[in-house]
Structure formats: C-alpha cells, structure tokens
Amino acid sequence: MDSTTMKATAHTNIALIKYWGKKNIELNLPTTSSLSLTLDKYYTTTSVSSAEIDSFVLNNQPADATRIHHFLNMLRKQLGDFSPLKVISENHVPTSAGLASSASAFAALTGVVVHELGMNLSNEELSRLARRGSGSASRSFFGNFAVWHKGIDDESSFAESLNASDMPIALVVAEVSHAEKKISSTEGMQRALTSPNYDDWLVKSANQLIDMQSAIQHADIDKVGSIAEDNALGMHALNLTASRQPFTYFTDQTQMILSLIQDMRHQGILAYATIDAGPNVKIITTKDEASTIVNILKNAMPTLAVEVAQSGPGISYD
C-alpha cells in the first residue's frame, strides 16, 4: 500500500429485527437473520497507511490494536498478504453503549483496506469480510434498510440492500449512558443462548422478519415500530431468563423511557422502542412527531441527551 489518505465513511445501523446469538463464533455466523435501518447521525471515518506494525489511533489517541490486528490478519488470509497498517479512525458514535459503534468501524475499515489494495468488491462481498470483525458491520455498507442473511457458512452469510418504499421514518435516540457496558455483546449473546426460551425466540424472530419486510414495503411505520419493539423486548427477555448468569442492560432511566413511550402511545403518538446491547433507547416514529417526543422526554428527564436520527447512506469514499 502507498501512503495515500483515502478515507472510508460508514454509518451505524440499528437492527429492527435483532441479531442476538452466534452459531459459529469464528465465522460470526448468527443464529437469526436480521434487518436494520442505517442512521445518518452516527458514523466512523477511517484511513490506513503503511507502518512497522499494525497500530490503531482512535479519535486522535493511540488505542489497543489487538482486535484490529486479528481482523487485519483475517483479511490477509482472505485477500492476500499486505504490509502492517496504521489504522486511523474518527468515531462519531458513543462506544460500547448499544449504538453500533463496531458496525460502522469495521465496515469503514474493511472498505478502505480493500480499496487501498486496488480490489473491486461489491458491497455484498465486503459485508462477508466485515462480518468477521463485527456481525452488524455487514449491514453498514447499505443505506436505508438492509437484511443480513444468517446463512449456513461463510459464503451464504452476507447482507444486502432491501428495496423499500419511501417513508418518513425517524429515530429519537435517548442516550442514557456513554459509559462502556459491563457485559460485552459477545458475552451477552453467549449467556442468552442458555435461556430456555431461546429456541422459541428464534422461530418468532424468523416470522417477524417476514412481517417486517412486508411492513417496510407498505411504508407502514406503525407496524414497523410495533414489530421492532416486540422483537427487541423479546431479545432482552432472553438476557433476564438466561440459566447462566442472567443480566440486563436496562437501567432505571431505560425503564422510565419505556414507560413514557407507553404513555405516548396512549396519547395517540406513534412511538415504539428498540434497544440494542446497552441502556440507550431508540424511539421509532415519524419525522413529524419526532420533535413532540423530544419535548416529552426533555420535560420528564431534563438531563437526558436526546438526538433525532433519520435514514442514513451507505458506505462512501473520499
């Protein structure tokens, strides 16, 4: 690689049908297919240059390169050997708080490395590679809605864009905490697999995926939100019912926001929750109703950090 400073920018995505469990840890093959919405508000920009050893700079600070090094070695096996790299990332996402920072990070890294190698791979091919670093990264190559097919092996587990009707969907992001979560997603998934309800959740999730795709095709935001909330709460119920070390990512503030969302729906406001591996709550709504929801949250919880995100773009290079 030369010393050019091409950058790749990938946005985070929020799974409306969740990925929560691995059937092959080495290949990051999930137990369920998943469906996501890419967000405009949160993203990672990454560049690479030749170096003496693999190293990592995150937000202008040297960072632990262990995970990056392992991922780059995987790329070397898949794509052919290349020299050590200095990876420089700007992450515009709260890290490890359930806002998919690793998704945008590994998508951007995969994209920029492949481009610097002069290889012309499709986003679907890139999604297979990025999946090895972070499963949800497979979906961050695509704008708007994307589906990650669980597959049965490396070749069949990939993401692709979902052709969708245009709809005025918005997410109100309530950032309960920026702190790094105590239980990683990987650890959380392993515990959730021990829930006696896990197999039932897999069956229900597969049906919800079909229903969600239909709701998106019909631009039915109310149905999109209803399915997403049911899927997310089902995922978090697995954590509580794990037979090995049950746990929750929810805080008191998370619970309070969920209660407020129920109150909003009783008032006729379109508002549904989705929550990933962390305490932060994303509220699915319409662009028109987003400001109303922000005001309700801020009145009830004045110190809460709230932002409004909309549908975001796929990966880009400059």
TrEMBL record:
Its EC number is 4.1.1.33. Pfam families: MDD_C (PF18376), MVD-like_N (PF22700). Residues 10-159 form the Diphosphomevalonate decarboxylase-like N-terminal domain. Residues 172-303 form the Mvd1 C-terminal domain. GO terms for biological process: isopentenyl diphosphate biosynthetic process, mevalonate pathway. One of its GO terms (cellular component) is cytosol. Keywords: ATP-binding, Lipid biosynthesis, Lipid metabolism, Lyase, Nucleotide-binding. It comes from the Bacteria. Coiled coil: none annotated. Belongs to the diphosphomevalonate decarboxylase family. NCBIfam families: mevDPdecarb. This is diphosphomevalonate decarboxylase. It comes from Leuconostoc litchii.
